[in-house]
Amino acid sequence: MKKVKVEDAVGLTLCHDLTEMRDGFKGAAFKRGHVITEEDIPHMLDIGKRTVFVWEENAGEIHEEDAALRMAAMAPVAGAHYTAPSEGKVLLLADQEGLFRVNTDLLRRVNAIGDITISTLPDHYPVKPGMRLASMRIVPLVTQESQIIEAEALCKEEKLLDLLPYKPRKAGIVITGSEIYHGRIKDKFEAVCRRKLAAYPGEVLGAAICDDDLDMLVSAARSFLDQGADLLIFSGGMSVDPDDLTPTAIRQLSCQVISHGVPSQPGNMSLVAYLGDIPVLGVPGAAISLPTTLFDVLLPQIYTGLKFTKGDLIRLGEGGLCQLCPACHFPNCTFGRY
Fold this sequence. Notes:
four-stranded antiparallel sheet, single chain
């Protein structure tokens, strides 16, 4: 590049965007590739630009917009698209609902290369169409192409970003409690559960209210399985009291229990299990009385078809303490995403 006074730049071609900020607006007043005219000079001076840069080809260097395009190409995401470069950066926007995944270790390695900066939503973030998922740019106007080549090589070995679409499921709800079964109190979980599941594709096959009876619980679950259920949700009986039979019923179905108890609150006593590929959840009573619990955190991944591991659930401890605030925007807060 060479630096030229704006008064001497008439007829020359800009090699970078010129940013303008005024009255809440921030954007490119002049785009890369613009040929400067006499009429442009007052505008450039008004936005504080006394000099501009003209591109001179230098071996081994790459311009910020070309670098941004290369970074976008190295991290393709099905169900999302990258914008054209603007002010040196590209944005990744969601085209569909789903669960956004970030290879956090790979992201750290790419961002440690030097001039490259890639910022994303947190891993495991549920997104809707139009949401910004990532932003990519280099810090200086130009950088050594070797840095981009290094990042491209890393992303050939592993996938950096992904957007997993939700898949339809048929859910069966099994509600436990003698007080509900015998009509002493009215059940509230079915309505809560149906409302939360309505955000995902599929259908609810029904809800069975059971007494504190092991055979009744197992029979209700098997009835839903016979109807084609590929998601079972149990509520009630999830504590450690001797008459809390739900975890025993889930094990009696021959489920593989991944964890009974998750380091996340509210919903600490949740149970996550699988009957083959069918997810089975034990949801504690907090889901009835509180607007957001671990149940909300688990559902997005459940509906992608991606299985939880014990390690996945352990990692929920970081950011897993909900302050029950009305509108949380802390980016590392698990519950603030809902």
